[in-house]
Design goal:
Number of strands: 23
Number of helices: 7
Strand content: 25-35%
Distance between the termini: 123 Å
Shape: globular
Helix content: 10-25%
Order of helices and strands: HEEHEHHEEEEEEHHEEEEEEEEEEEEEEH
CATH class of the largest domain: Alpha Beta
Largest sheet: 10 strands, antiparallel
Length: 458
Amino acid sequence: MFPKTHLTIAAAATVVVTAAILMSPSAQVEAKRMSYALDLEQGTVSDNGTVETPEPEAPNEVVINGQAPVADAEQQAKVTKPAPEAEPALEWQTYKIKSGDTLSSLFKKAGFNDGIMLSVIHGEGEADKLQRLYAGETIRFATDNAGDLAAIELQRSLLESLKIEKAEEGFSGQTVIREPEARPAFASGTIDGSLYLSAREAGLNDRLTMELAGIFGWEIDFVYDVRKGDRFEVVYEELYLDGKKFDTGRILSARFVNRGEDNTALLYTDSNGESDYYAPNGKSMRKAFLRTPINARVSSAFNLQRRHPVLDVVRPHEGTDYGAPTGTPIKAAGAGRVRFSGWKGGYGRTVILQHGDNITTLYAHMSRLGKGIKNGAKVKQGETIGYVGSSGMVTGPHLHYEFRLNGAPRNSRTVKLPDAKPVPASEMARFKRYTEQRLAQFNGFRENFQQLALASDE
């Protein structure tokens, strides 16, 4: 019924359809596809004979200006970034340095000879500082997997350490200083017996107590002038390391009420980095001279009609005697130059300082002189110039101290002392801004303390 041509066409179509059905992937194999090699230059496609699972498409893939998409930065880093090399494990040996220990003996304890020790202290940087050891410090030696010395750490304090490491060219050391966190704290107290006992009860340690006395020591004699009922308030630093308190720092501001007279001092650091204590009006809390050159009791006061304890005759006592144990440090009352140092008759070992043109101070009966105290040497206020003794014509160890103005003796405990320099006019605006902040902090602490005190009484 059909022409041969039609039958031929129908048969061919049947073959094509059947082949298409057979070659089409089913639902179960939808996820797989044939892999082809694509040759764009020749315009041909060839089967490479493999079957692959397709890679998932990159999210948010964008083609910009016809450029191929760039891989995600994080994925690219994972591919290109090399795996970090593991640091070699070090084994540490720790030793507490005791009196009598030497660097050589410590190296031997750690298993290293003097040759290695010499190679360390002759290293680069500050490695040679390892030679200065003090009892109480801690030293650590690190060895690598081969047993060779790799590092040394000398812990001088919580804040300072000397770290030495081995490099290709040898050992190299450096001093590492950690900066503590300083937090302000407040203490307040009323004198009942002595400043020392009242300060301890208020929570101040001995160093802060001495610093408090030093701040107001030019105006107040803490041996004779302090009375029961006198009050003090202090804002100071508490030092923290890794979140733990380990020490106290400077006094930031302080107030001392002595016999009803209010004395306030503020720590101020000028634009040149120099720090000192000043009253809120800019007047220095210091005098040009210390009221007393030693922390000790008066054993014999200034008296021009005193009977000499050895000669038993009336002889003017042109100075003040301070009884103290032998070896107690003696401070220079003011900055000046050594006019005399050595043995001076009945005065024994003596130092005389010249301060400007018209003031001299004399320190007698010393057991020995301070380091570098010789004629012509310059000294700073508070510098140790000698130590208490009993040299010369004396009955026991003490310091004999004289203050002379234009050659005439003056009572060092009552003479009007010249002030140190106030805040200069060029610094006054900066000082006032700083003072306002310090006083606001001080008053804030005081109010909180008073509120807590009232609450505890209720």
